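Lab notebook, design round three. We kept the backbone fixed and only want residue identities now. Task for the bench partner: fill in a sequence for the structure below.
Input structure tokens:
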């Protein structure tokens, strides 16, 4: 039985009828432009074929009841209890429920009509893996409430409201990339987003190469605190650099030459964070031309450089991610490999020649397992469409 059939069965058992609707919402992988979205840079994600699914129907009850199959828990809340982050019975919302509740909260702020729902949901996006399981949950409920409310928001607006929920309701100060990719994904395409103007375009996946995701299966705790610290480090760098460059608004506005000239004025820790961002924006600026020219070798080199920078300057890698990347880079057919997403454990993304995909995947899994005794998960990924009502 696949995941969707399981959800429908659980729904029927719990609520006594067949759910009226099904929504699917993908995770994402990011190829280049890491930790630059909240610095207004350029990113290159794709929505992937791992996704969150929700099956649901409207209810006349005074609250929405959500069953989270992955947690074996349920929660009930309504617009009355949303601001206190509590359930219908006044107990606090469990952490997983903050994401759908946050979506309801941000839609309420838009004064959109919201109907209560009975829902069952689950995800095959591994949690905490750098593949945006949170954004996929946000976007799945965004479409669910949209379906019941009878209004339609443009995909980018849905992404922005999901980001607002995560920033202001859940408390993670994330950028726009994940919600954008989950909302706006296009089958077989990479997405190029300018995180300042929010203009975006698609680019075909380079021919003859596959995107392979490798999950170290390692998860770090308290990552949202570390993430928020990285972001405030960047903001501090902007404040300090503004003494010499009064017109800059974010690190996006700082060229590499200016940065090199002024770097010594920054405290060492802040300098490292800001250097990653400035140089990574420089790398992601080159992507469009490289893709157009079909120059996969140079593209892969930028991915490799990105990993070194995330490891040594931004300090969001870990020994298992470094090991996975170095094994990958030693294998035939690998153009580039790096950690993907926020870091602190999770997955790597690899660009691999099509004819080497099987050998590469096996050798990577075996090499990693023999050093760590952890069996990694390897996904040969296809870029997918964004969040959508499928029934
Ligand atoms: C997380 C955030 C994104 C982005 C990445 C790092 O996935 O949600 O906004 O900052 O980390 O690139």
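Proposed sequence:
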């Amino acid at each position: 039985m696949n995941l969707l059939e399981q959800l429908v069965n659980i729904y029927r058992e719990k609520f006594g009828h067949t759910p009226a609707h099904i929504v699917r919402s993908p995770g994402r992988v990011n190829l280049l432009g890491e930790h630059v979205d909240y610095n207004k840079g350029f990113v290159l994600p794709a929505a992937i074929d791992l996704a969150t699914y929700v099956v649901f129907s409207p209810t006349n009850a005074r609250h929405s009841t959500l069953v989270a199959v992955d947690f074996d828990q349920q929660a009930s809340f309504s617009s009355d209890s949303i601001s206190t982050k509590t359930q219908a019975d006044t107990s606090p919302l469990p952490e997983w429920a903050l994401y759908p509740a946050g979506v309801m909260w941000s839609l309420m702020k838009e004064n959109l009509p919201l109907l209560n729902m009975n829902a069952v949901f689950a995800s095959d996006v591994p949690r905490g893996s750098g593949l945006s399981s949170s954004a996929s949950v946000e976007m799945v409920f965004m479409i669910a409430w949209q379906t019941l409310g009878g209004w339609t928001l443009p995909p980018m607006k849905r992404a922005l409201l999901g980001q607002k929920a995560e920033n202001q309701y859940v408390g993670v100060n994330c950028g726009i990339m994940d919600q954008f990719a989950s909302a706006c994904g296009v089958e077989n395409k990479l997405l190029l987003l300018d995180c300042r103007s929010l203009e975006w375009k698609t680019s075909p996946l380079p021919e003859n190469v596959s995107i392979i995701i490798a999950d170290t299966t390692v998860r770090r705790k308290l990552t949202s605190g570390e993430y928020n610290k990285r972001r405030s480090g960047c903001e501090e760098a902007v404040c300090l650099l503004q003494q010499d460059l009064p017109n800059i608004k974010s690190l996006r506005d700082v060229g590499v030459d200016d940065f090199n000239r002024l770097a010594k004025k920054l405290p060492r820790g802040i300098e490292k964070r800001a250097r990653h961002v400035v140089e990574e924006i420089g790398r992601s600026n080159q992507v469009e031309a490289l893709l157009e020219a079909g120059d996969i070798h140079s593209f892969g080199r930028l991915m490799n450089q990105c990993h070194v920078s995330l490891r040594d300057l931004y300090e969001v890698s870990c020994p298992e991610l470094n090991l996975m990347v170095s094994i990958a880079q030693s294998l035939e057919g690998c153009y580039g490999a790096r950690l993907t997403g926020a870091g602190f454990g999770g997955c790597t993304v690899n660009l691999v020649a099509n004819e080497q995909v099987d050998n590469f995947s096996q050798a990577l899994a075996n090499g990693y397992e023999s050093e760590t005794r952890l069996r990694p998960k390897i996904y040969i990924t296809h870029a997918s469409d964004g969040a959508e009502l499928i029934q």
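Keep this in mind before ordering anything: The chain has a mean pLDDT of 97.
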